[in-house]
């Protein structure tokens, strides 16, 4: 078993981006600028956004955080999106999800200028990705592809099973793994809450991507000997032994599954750390006008 070490790979990617920013700016390019909108005080969202902002500072981007109250109206949020769309200094921005229930996430996503949609959530970017056109690939799929690439994992002709059909992970992952590219050329099965015989389907996976949001759901009996196992789960569970009062669990029972797998991502320290790299890569592409000129 080999660990797909998100900590090592993400720190390598960050130093590559930092070097590219330095080169870009030395050649007269503009300092990349990422803005983030955060609504309310959700603990996990606070942590994610703080870490995105910190990473921007580390690699030489400008960052701006716009905070809104949990009871902010949809109209106010749409105005903020419009003002970032029109701000020439902001290359890309994100609206941290989830949003409070009274605000339509789809409406907000669609209001973002696709050229600044560094989360890759706008239907135009999703559609372009599906057609194999230049597009911002969203953070988690980007992170997973990059882990497969850097470990040199063969994907062509393999059976890739994705558990979970979310807009953010499962759906884009299934599209990316079947495209005629590397990583890709897999035969993909996408599974979800209504799937029958889930265990049997997973047992035939060469590459198993688990993103259903149920802590330690996947045990050894789901996994074929020698499979590549990618755990996207990040669930906070109460843990009185931790200062924070919680610990983080993946969707895979690591100790059970690791001995059977050829490669496996740990949680924490796996896919989660890679996602920021996707966002930073997209922001640099936005600053360089590489996707939309
Ligand atoms: N919430 C969970 N993951 C993400 C992400 O990748 N981007 C945003 N904006 N919100 C999220």
Describe, in plain words, how this protein is organized in 3D:
The structure is a single chain. This protein is of the alpha/beta class and 293 residues long. The protein folds into 2 domains: 84 residues, Rossmann fold (3-Layer(aba) Sandwich), CATH 3.40.50; 135 residues, Rossmann fold (3-Layer(aba) Sandwich). Helix content is 39%, strand content 16%. The protein is built from 10 helices and 11 strands. A 6-stranded parallel sheet has the order 1-11-8-7-5-6. Strands 3-2-4 form a 3-stranded parallel sheet, with helices on both faces. A two-stranded antiparallel sheet has the order 9-10. Helix 7 links the parallel strand 5 and strand 6. Helix 1 packs parallel to helix 10 and helix 6 packs across helix 10. It is globular, with a radius of gyration of 19 Å. The structure holds guanine. The site of guanine (GUN) has 8 residues, from strand 4.
Quick structural gist:
Helices cover 39% and strands 16% of the residues. It is an alpha/beta fold and 293 residues long.
From N to C, what is the helix and strand string?
EHEHEHEHHHEHEHEEEEHEH
Q: What is the rounded distance between the termini?
A: 44 Å
At the third CATH level, what is the topology name of the largest domain? Rossmann fold
Shape from CA axes?
globular
Strand order of the largest sheet: 1-11-8-7-5-6
Helix-strand layout with pairing:
Layout: E1 2-3, H1 6-26, E2 33-39, H2 43-59, E3 62-68, H3 74-85, E4 92-95, H4 105-111, H5 123-131, H6 139-150, E5 159-163, H7 170-178, E6 187-191, H8 198-203, E7 207-210, E8 228-231, E9 235-238, E10 246-249, H9 254-257, E11 263-264, H10 271-287
Parallel strand pairs: 1-11, 2-3, 2-4, 5-6, 5-7, 7-8, 8-11
Antiparallel strand pairs: 9-10
Helix pairs in contact: 1-10, 6-10
Guanine is lined by residues 94-97, 119, 139, 168, 275.
